[in-house]
Amino acid sequence: MGKLVLPEGKKIAVNLGVDFDAQSLWLGAFNMPSPAMMARGEFGAAVGVPRLLDLYARYDVKTTFFVPGHTIDTFTDACREIQSAGHEFGHHGYYHENPTKIERETERRLIELALESFDRQLGIRPRGYRSPYWDYSESTLDLVEEFGFEYDSSLMARDLVPYRPRRWKVHWERGCVAGRASSVLEIPVNWYLDDFPPLAYVGGLQPGMQDTETIFRRWRDIFDYGYQRVDGACYAPAVHPQIIGQAHHIMWYERLVDYIASKDGVWFATCGDIRDAWVDDDDDQRLQELDDVRGVEEAPVGSGFR
């Protein structure tokens, strides 16, 4: 166990995270490399990212962009704009592959391939990982640890607090058995805080096009619950530039950001910042380090830069 030690005067950490999948979404997730789908991915880079960067700049938000290596290699300039704006990058696979559908060595190779893209194009190595499918293979957690990632943001054993993910031995006709906790910190995701399922239209597969007022109220209510009822809360929605960047979507999302920013004690943070603010039980030395740093100056934004 452990807890999130927020900066003085803060009561909730907010990571307005972005999954900048671009064209890779239509490759790895849907196997739909048609010109129309490539255009939708292009929209995310050409329109969605600038709209998000403008919104976040107006509210002085620094956040984490989880980006596949394919996006870095295809839309390098957009990624450099994100970097110039001071946001953190997280690993998000190479071509938005599904870890549950590939072999361990393929999964390892694609993690390495994306790391090479981060290094070659942006000169960084990301501190954190997010599974492209918000799901793990039997090998994923081992690989996340092997590659030295400090945090993950793919799993859902909690909703509003970080935790250490555990390996489970699955049994069908008797109880499952919990294994050891990971050294990696989990910053949980939540399908109810993802813009893609309710809002993305995929012909024949996903209707999308739900009422945006419903989504706004849902995301606001989840924030309110964390803000009002959870000590050391961490609110971490995920948006996709090609979805949230649509004109009618960015309007409700801007209202949400404005609502959150209006509350006292909100800490807009990168996932790296959240990782740095986590203290395991009985870690008195770590608590003292945080007190010392925050007694001199505000803790620096975790940028992922080397």
Write the layout of secondary structure elements.
Elements: E1 2-4, E2 12-14, E3 17-19, H1 24-29, H2 35-58, E4 64-67, H3 69-74, H4 76-84, E5 88-91, H5 104-122, E6 128-129, H6 140-146, E7 151-152, E8 166-169, E9 177-181, E10 185-186, H7 196-199, H8 212-229, E11 233-235, E12 238-239, H9 241-244, H10 247-261, E13 266-268, H11 271-276, E14 278-280, H12 284-296
Parallel strand pairs: 2-11, 2-13, 3-4, 3-12, 4-5, 6-7, 7-10
Antiparallel strand pairs: 1-14, 8-9
Describe the overall structure:
The chain has 306 residues and is an alpha/beta fold. The chain has 12 helices and 14 strands. The protein has one domain (2-296): Glycoside hydrolase/deacetylase (TIM Barrel, Alpha-Beta Barrel). A 4-stranded parallel sheet has the order 5-4-3-12. Helix 8 packs parallel to helix 10 (247-261). The longest helix has 24 residues, at 35-58.
Quick summary:
With 306 residues, the protein is of the alpha/beta class. It has helices at residues 24-29, 35-58, 69-74, 76-84, 104-122, 140-146, 196-199, 212-229, 241-244, 247-261, 271-276, 284-296; strands at residues 2-4, 12-14, 17-19, 64-67, 88-91, 128-129, 151-152, 166-169, 177-181, 185-186, 233-235, 238-239, 266-268, 278-280.
